[in-house]
Amino acid sequence: MALNKISDAAFRNFKPSDNVQIISDGGGLIIRVRPKNEGGSVSFMLSYRIEGKQRQITLKAKSLKEARKERDIYKEQVKQGKDPILERKLETERTRQQQLEEQENLAKLNARITVNDLFIRWTEIDLINRKDRQEIIRMFNKDVLPVLGDLFVEDVRKGHITQVTDALLVRGVNRMAKVLLGLMRQMFRFAVDRDIIEFDPTASIRKAKVGGKDVERDRTLNQDEIKQLAQQLPSSGLMQSTECAIWIALSTLCRIGELSKAKHSDIDIVAKTWKIPETNSKNGKAHVIYLSNFSLAQFNRLKSLSGSETWLFPNRDNSDHVCDKSITKQIDGRQTKIIYSHRSKHSQALVLPNGKWTPHDLRRSGATLMGKLGIQGDVIEKCLNHTEENKVKRIYQRQGLEEEQAAAWQTLGERLNLLLGCLCLPNDSLPYTFS
After folding, report:
1. What is the 8-class DSSP label of residue 49?
2. Cα end-to-end span (Å), the chain
3. Three-state DSSP class for residue 352
4. Domain residue extents for the chain
5. CA angle 410, 411, 413 (to 5 degrees)
């Protein structure tokens, strides 16, 4: 059958009549002209045969030229064994699916959050009850968020994470790099658990590759170093309250963070005890330290130095306790390997023969000295407020060994008095009293 039977001029001259007009243009293309009383509109249809069946499809074209192009497309589909009616349905479904995908992508785009947003959510949900929450916030604000904060969470890659840790390694704070990697991993796993992202960008980074393997610290100050420390402290430029903190940590085996948060009300002068509440204790267990005369003298001294009715170590405006890291930073700043012109003249004032030491090493040193004085290991563990690792012992052996602990602390205090004499205590130390 010849195609295009109707000329363009003839098509333009079609006039609607009182009845429907059906006109063939060839190749199965049919022109349908509605009667005058129905508006006389023109539409196009294609008649074709597939799989032995005669079928018709209404075309979308609005002009004869468009109808002929559409006819040719459909006739080619028929040659390929495709039914135009089915193909049109499939195309409609494909379009619908594409629209749904676009809507989903748009929703995902609108739902994208930055690392800053994720960090706020993580701290408000996962960290809400963590004792080190404020310290984690400080570390992220200093070292993580300036690098990652403005990135969308789903755009963070391994390279972004190592950019943070590498900067810390360059500064020489390898352990801090490992700590922050662990914290970033916790935050991104929090995001995975909540379908914010699909994969954790820290997953393939091994802690051992960041700053090397962890080395268990075993530094202790021997008795000669303790005596030398007492001689060096007066000229070290340390705050007097920090000097007290050093001797309290050594004589009570406390953690420096527990001491930083201590209140005057925690000290009972009559019972000679220091009660560390569970909120201040690292393991969440309240702890009572039986103060030796040596330790109590340091608390007496602190009383006259604190200037606060509440805190032993107040911050600048007495509104809270001092930062947990304050004492450690003061001590660390007086053991620098290199003397810089702009640094304090006391930058090596606390260097000891056997190398760098930290406030936590004082806790270990006091425990070691207890052991050398013949105190039993289980008593020392109680003094340290360690959690019993053996589950059976932890459940069934509930004895507190309070008397043994009190004797242990007193024995340690007496040895320190013997080692140091009055080197670590001014002559005008006052009895501990309450306001």
Report:
1. E
2. 114
3. coil
4. 8-103, 115-209, 223-420
5. 60
Torsions phi, psi for 318 (to 5 deg): 60, 20
Does CATH number 3.40.50.150 belong to domain 8-103?
Answer: no
pLDDT tens sequence across 185-239: 999 999 999 988 889 999 989 887 786 665 667 899 999 999 999 999 999 999 9
Q: How far is C-alpha 204 from the chain's CA centre?
A: 17
The residue type of 55 is: R
Q: What is the pLDDT of residues 121-164, one digit of tens each?
A: 999 999 988 878 988 999 999 999 999 999 999 999 999 999 99
Class of domain 115-209: mainly alpha
Please, are residues 45 and 56 in contact by the beta-carbon 8 Å criterion?
yes
205 to 157, 164, 182: CA distances (angstroms): 11, 13, 10
CB 207 within 8 A of CB 182: yes
What single DSSP character describes residue 312? S
Task: Please write the tens of the pLDDT for every residue from 234-285.
Answer: 999 999 999 999 999 999 999 999 999 999 999 998 899 999 998 888 878 8
Q: Which two tokens stand for residue 176?
A: 């801090």
Cα(291)–Cα(410) distance, integer angstroms: 7
Determine contact, residues 366/252, Cβ cutoff 8 Å: yes
Give the 3-state secondary structure of residue 321. Answer: strand
Tell me how far apart the alpha carbons of residues 210 and 167 are, in angstroms, rounded to a whole number: 11
Check: CATH 1.10.443.10 for 223-420? yes
Could you give the CA distance from residue 405 to residue 402 in angstroms, rounded to a whole number?
Answer: 5
Is the four-CA dihedral 132, 134, 137, 141 of positive or negative sign? negative
Cβ count near 232 (within 10 Å): 18
The answer to whether the CB of 264 falls within 8 A of the CB of 303 is: yes
Beta partners for residue 152, in sequence order: 114
CA dihedral 422, 426, 428, 429 (to 10 degrees): -90
**Three-class SS state of 163:** helix
Task: State the DSSP H helix or E strand holding residue 32, giving kind and residue range, or none if neither.
Answer: strand 29-33
- Residue 4: Cβ within 10 Å count: 13
Amino acid at 205: I
What Cα–Cα distance (Å) separates residue 265 from each residue in 268, 294, 306? Answer: 7, 19, 13
Distance CA 215, CA 227 (A): 28
